[in-house]
Amino acid sequence: MSTTPYSAQHISSLKADTPSFLALQEHYAATKNIPLRALFDGDPDRFASFTVEAAGLFLDYAKNTLTSETMSLLFNLARERHVEARREAMFVGEKINTTEHRAVLHTALRTPWPPSSAAAALVVDGQQVNADVHAVLEQIATFTESVRSEKWRGYNGKPITDIVNIGIGGSDLGPKMVCQALRPFQHARLTMHFVSNVDGHDIDAVLSKIDPATTLFVIASKTFTTMETMMNAHSARQWFLTQAETATETDLAHHFVAVSTNTEGVKAFGIDPQNMFPFWDWVGGRYSVWSSIGLSVALAIGFERFSEFLAGAHAMDSHFRSAPLEQNMPAILALVGVWQRNFCGSASLSIAPYHQDLGNFPSYLQQLEMESNGKRTALDGSPVEVNTCPVIWGNVGTNGQHAYFQLLHQGTDITPVDFIAALAPEHRLPGHQAALLANCFAQSEAFMRGKSADEVRAEMQTKGMPEDQITALLPHRTFPGNRPSNTILMQKLTPAALGALIALYEHKVFVQGVIWGINSFDQWGVELGKVMATHILDELNTNATCDSSVGKHDSSTNGLINRARAVLMAAKSDAA
Ligand SMILES: O=P(O)(O)OC[C@H]1O[C@](O)(CO)[C@@H](O)[C@@H]1O
After folding, report:
1. Model ipTM?
2. pLDDT at 1 over 50
3. Cα of 195 vs its chain's centroid, Å
4. Which residue positions are annotated as catalytic (predicted)?
């Protein structure tokens, strides 16, 4: 294993006094008052200079308050942080996830088979990575084909009509987002459902509309210990046994399959390991849709389309791994984000897909970005000295325009926006696509240009508005502009384009993590609440007098537990 200076355990936080950081700070101070409008007016070639194309995607980052000098300083920063060497360390399977002692190899899940050369074949801890990935893909291909072709049937001989994916976090958000995004490619007989929340209303709503005889449950959990997933899986199992007429325990095999790294856990639940689709600890939950966690996707769109999805991501991997930083789309997207976050001071990033089928993309990115880079400790254990991941949020356009875009245009914070659009639609309805794209492009232009007081005044005067009204309304109707955005375009939202889009953001997150000096692949921050919930669950389920059993909490938590327990206990005795 490499012990070069870029080995993870030697990496400290990005420091505000490093030469490249100081140079960027100085540059920001010198350029911050130049309006974006002026940058466009002064350079007719700005669009050509600040756009990049790769793997079927087109990125326009010209509407950011930056110049070629900014970019060159950012590339210096990336090189100073050893982005290229760290990138290679990830691809070749070094254990860059140092706090969990794991390699990070989601890119191997989409490497074509057989690998192009012996050198490309990955061996990690003695495991033939590519061969193992390929074997599981074959298993997925055979199984999904048999369900789709009606060979695989329910216990009383009926074909499967409904698939229920039970999982949470990466075992839910990825498959759910991708199935929605690729809705037009979905098998006509199959309806996809996703259950994630421990709140019983979630699974109850799904169970109330499906037939046990024609339903397949996919229990998706890397660990097979996650409280939410296990509780939902047990409820589904119980529901099946009570609702499916004449069904016995042996019939469960027709209706429950598992996706996991934990064979023992799957067996203990009662699923035959024959019906288990494995993956490996070097696949992080939020990077797992390419693994067997994508089983629901492959069931929905078929294995051929699933392969196209993997190929799209691989095309972005190849670009990311080989393109110089100056032409490297994920690196550029990451560096623009670092500029916005660490120098321009933006605390959040809004994601605006102008495509209804990408409705779940913002929530997917919330986990990808915030669980990866929402960290305050550097790889070497020291405190991080600069701001890390911004808050990620958003919704589809044009809906967002009629909700929170007011704040984006005229609020007190400057929030960068990533616009994402497909040029051609899957539907044939006249007029809609042009209207959608017109709104997308208009919003980014409006954020950039704003509307000056002089322009607003002239407009109101042309309309013949009295001077006193003009004076009163002027400040309200003025737009400051200078609000940054990126626009990502694809031809159509195909499996390959979606694969490339997700991989683009995965690698953006990686580059930002390297620059900030953090481990983008662990998630210790989710542990504390999980453990405390198990204790409180025990307390809510006991009959002991409130004060003695819950006395160890603060008065607020204690009071809340007591109020809830009174209701839960009453419901229990009513049911008895
Ligand atoms: O697939 P599992 O093991 O059930 O975990 C689900 C999710 O829980 C987390 O571990 C923490 O919330 C995520 O990283 C993961 O995607």
Report:
1. 0.98
2. no
3. 18
4. 371, 402, 530
